[in-house]
Amino acid sequence: MSTSLRNNGAALLSVLAAGLLVAGFALAFFWAPEARGDPAFRIFYLHVPVALTAYAAFGWGGWKALRLLWTREERYDLESYVAIHMGVIFGLLALVTGSVWARYTWGVWWTWDERQLVLFLVLFLFYSAYFMLRFSTPPGPRRARTSAVYALFGVALIPVSFLAIRLAERYIHPVVLTRDPKIENEMLVSFFVCLAGMLVLAGALYLVELSGKRADARLRELRELLT
Amino acid sequence: MTAYLADVAALTRKDLLVELRSRDTVPAMLLFVVGGLVVFHFALADDSSRLASAGMLWIALLFTALLALVRSFVAERDEAVIDGLLLAPCDRSAIWLGKTLSVVAFLALAELVALPAFALFYEPVTWELVAGVALANIGIAAVGTLLGAMAAAARARELLLPLLFMPLAIPLIVGGVGATLAEDPGRYLGFLALYDLIFAILSWASFEYVVTE
Amino acid sequence: MSTGEKYVAAAYLVLFGTLLLYVALIALKLGRLQRELDELARIARERAGG
Amino acid sequence: MIRARGLGRRFGDKRVLAGLDLDVGSRELLLVTGPNGSGKTTLLRLIAGLIVPTAGEIEVDADRAHIGFLAHEPLVYRELTPLENLELYGRLYRIPERRERIGMLLERFGLWDARHESTAALSRGMLQRLALCRTLLHDPELVLLDEPFTSLDAAGSELLLDELTDDARRTIVVASHQPERLGDRPTSRLALAAT
Fold first, then answer.
1. Burial C7-43 (b: 16+ CB within 10 A, else e)
2. How many other CB atoms are found less than 10 A from the CB of residue A48?
């Protein structure tokens, strides 16, 4: 019963995500005005929602990690892991789309000037280490708890790294680049629709991945009972 | 509270005594950090600025700290002595704090050699640098000890620990290099203190979770 | 299509490509789950028979 | 003293203990037997609180300060002397009149003359005696012994049994495949099967 509901949840979210994202991208391309006469600015409607979704996923994973440490319920381990998995996928997407943007704007595939990009690189390193930790620790309550603690460190690391990257700019290059595109209401509305779509998409993927992992676990249990 | 501090003191004393007997870690750290400073001379171009040498110093300190951290739970892991400590009625965070303090002591010893060597080979040592190093030691030891306990459960733990630690060390490097070079070192020292506070509290609170199976 | 538009298209294609890749991964996983289920069903049938 | 219901523990995909029900009363002596890999050590570690169960539940009416656990390993630092090791544990267990208690135990287990030697240089039998000192240091109510008789000579075993049972105020769980060495002391038994 609960499993079928959960699958329905994933289906529902997928449909919702499709609607929101199509609407959001359509608004972004056909309704919102072009910013600063910059045709590539429309990457903004993709890149920023993807990046924010990655943060949301990391945060969600951290919350589930906290729940695990609180309640000691095993299921939170998988939920935290899957959320972080989603965060890494979206983080990677943010890195790639950001890189495309940098290539157009500055003519290079990578720039240390773009704080968000640097932050994602740091987080990518961090969460890759998270996966290494999980894969090299035997499964069990201890792995669940160590992963949870590391996930919580990640949540703390996000603002600390953000601050660090800002501070680093001052001694690496004292010149601060300022860009403030004029944001108009149409752009803002389009952006929020895109953001909502991306968050719902991540939610749908999260539920799909989770039910796949749970099916795996059930199968293992079944195999043990039968053999 | 007094009892807690007495436990911490007993544990730190034990770590220092073990190191005094075995002399496994500190001599290696000393040799490594001086060797690193020499190697960096050949890695830097002749006209490198003092900025580059400051960066190199911090890299050397970080990697030297990794040596201490990789070794930090060896005495406990061999033959599962950690179980003996976990069985004892003391608060488990006291084990973390005791270990953290001993790591701070080892780092300070290594830096007692590294900073004069740096002054001799490269640039004079400023008080900002010393303050930065002292603050960074706390962060390195606090986070590194927790990660060391986490990695102890894993296969290939000596490889895993640097991977776990590196992303978390980036802010420390920023703070340290900033304190050494920037015109307003106070900001960076403040940032290091903030880092220490956040991550020391997190590590202190979560140690119990990562050592029990 | 201007260069800027090309870059925009490229960025959005990355998202599209990633999603398709994910579908492929899920397909692989479903295949594996199905194979394992088949095997377990066979074992269960043998048990019931024997 | 100990109550377990449906107790189970797995390590990864390996199930070591499953569906165990157990009741041990106060001042009882329980002998746990079973072949290698049947979960004797796991059971003792669960009782000691060193590991948490993955199934079922366990209740122990003694906190860490009142449990003594003799493990496979002596749980002492090889770099320190026997006296320093016991001093450390004495502090951590907050034992009143630590010096006297440690001296008494060292004397009793025949380690007094070796108290300043390096632990690494002790023989297996001496190490096991040191481990016993560590286990009994804080005069625990609940004593868990994992294969206590391996590497212990007859005199050592006798010493251990005397220490444990002379006034019969402790609850004792012994895991051993040499039950005959317990002598004719009254025991209840739990036989674990290999999984």
1. bbebbbebbeebeeeeeeeeeebeeeeeebeeebeee
2. 18
The DSSP secondary-structure symbol of B126 reads P
Q: D148 and D176 in contact (C-beta within 8 Å)? A: yes
Q: How far is CA B102 from CA B9, B72, B83, B153, D168, in A?
A: 10, 9, 19, 21, 42
Residues of D with CB under 8 A from a CB of B: 48-52, 63-65, 67, 69, 71-80, 84, 88-89, 91-94, 134
| Contact indicator for D195, D9 with CB cutoff of 8 Å | no
The residue ranges of chain A whose pLDDT is under 50 are: 1, 174-178
Identity at B23, one-letter amino acid code: R
Verify whether the Cβ–Cβ distance D15 to A224 is below 8 Å. yes
Q: What is the pLDDT of residues D43-93, one digit of tens each?
A: 999 999 999 898 899 999 988 999 999 998 999 999 999 999 999 999 999
Q: What is the largest CA-CA distance in chain A?
A: 67
pLDDT in tens, B54-81: 889 999 999 999 999 999 888 888 888 9
Instruction: Give D109-153 pLDDT, tens digit per residue.
Output: 999 999 999 999 999 989 999 999 999 999 899 999 998 888 888
Task: Sketch out chain A's domains with CATH numbers.
Answer: 2-226 (1.20.120)
- pLDDT value for B202: 96
Which member of A138, A141, A220 has the closest CB to residue D52?
Answer: A141
ipTM of this predicted structure: 0.90
Instruction: Count up the domains in chain C and report the number.
Output: 1
Interval C9-35 mean pLDDT: 92
Bridge partners of D10? Answer: D15
Q: Tell me the residue range of the domain where C16 lies.
A: 1-50
Beginning with the edge strand found earlier in the chain, give each strand of the sheet holding D29-33 in spatial order.
D67-70, D142-146, D171-175, D29-33, D188-191
Whole-number Å distance between alpha carbons of B124 and B134:
17
CB proximity list for B2: less than 8 A, separation 6 or greater? none
Name every chain D residue with its beta carbon within 8 A of the beta carbon of B74. Answer: none
pLDDT for residue A174: 45
Q: For residue range B153-198, what is the model confidence (pLDDT) as tens digits?
A: 888 888 999 999 999 999 999 999 999 888 888 899 999 999 999 9
By Cβ distance, the residue of A39, A96, A219 closest to C8 is: A39
In the chain, the amino acid numbered A104 is Y
8-state DSSP, A30: I
Query: Do B210 and A69 count as a contact with CB atoms less than 8 A apart?
Result: no
The domain total for chain B is 1
pLDDT tens digit string along C23-48?
999 999 999 999 999 998 898 888 88
CA atoms of A53 and A123, how far apart (whole Å): 14
CB of A49 closer than 8 Å to CB of A145: no
Structural domain containing residue B186:
2-211
